[in-house]
Specification:
Blueprint: H1 12-23, H2 28-37, H3 49-61, E1 65-71, E2 79-84, H4 86-101, H5 109-115, H6 122-150, H7 160-185, H8 192-203
Antiparallel strand pairs: 1-2
């Protein structure tokens, strides 16, 4: 039976598996290789083979993909080849529309750390953020170089996730640089005593 959307855990990796099988039947090792070859591992976590196999097992269980055959090459272990089902094709398109149109509330580490900034002294926070700023500067430069290299040979649709990553890195860099400047100038600062007094006033 096809799982409903509330029963099945949608994920970027599950969508990637469905997308790959839309083009051709494939075994898990090949899926992992193709995702990395296409550079999709920048936005899809495919580093863990165990996670990939668990995702495939769930997709089989829910009737979105099925086993096509088991193949064996010389001196290699058996490999199970999977193919898309009609239900998987329908669900993959539904997921795409939903993931493109409706943002999902996520909880990445950086906003959480920013919300708890007073755990550090201002100078400590500034030093940490300066390290992050340097990393982001390098990341923006790397993505610019990647876009410049591949725009000559690939259609833009193959690079839109790189454009997105570049835009997000540039926006974060602008934010981090502004916070660092405010910390350095004293426009942003705190002391543990001031925080304790503010909390005591809030309780009253």
């Amino acid at each position: 039976m096809l799982a409903t959307m509330t029963e099945y855990h949608r994920s970027p990796l599950a969508l990637a598996v469905l997308a790959l099988l839309t083009s051709a039947p494939m075994h898990p090792y090949r899926m992992q290789v193709v995702i990395k070859q296409w550079g999709k591992d920048q936005v899809i976590n495919v580093g863990s083979r165990a996670t990939l196999y668990k995702t495939i097992d769930r997709l089989v269980r829910d009737g979105l993909i099925r086993v096509r055959e088991t193949e064996r090459e010389r001196l290699r272990p058996e490999r199970t080849v999977y193919e898309m089902t009609d239900a998987g094709r329908e669900v993959s398109r539904r997921w795409m529309r939903e993931m493109l149109s409706a943002p999902r509330r996520e909880f990445p580490e950086f906003p959480a750390a920013i919300s708890l900034l007073p755990l550090l002294e201002p100078d400590q926070a500034r030093e940490a953020l300066e390290t992050r700023r340097a990393y982001l500067e390098g990341e923006v430069a790397r993505l610019d170089a990647e876009l410049a290299e591949y725009r000559q040979s690939l259609p833009r649709v193959s690079l839109v996730e790189v454009e997105y990553l570049r835009g997000m890195a540039a926006a974060e860099l602008s934010f981090v640089a502004a916070v660092v400047d405010d910390l350095r100038s004293g426009r942003l600062g705190w002391s543990q005593q001031e925080l304790r007094e503010a909390m005591e006033e809030e309780r009253q």
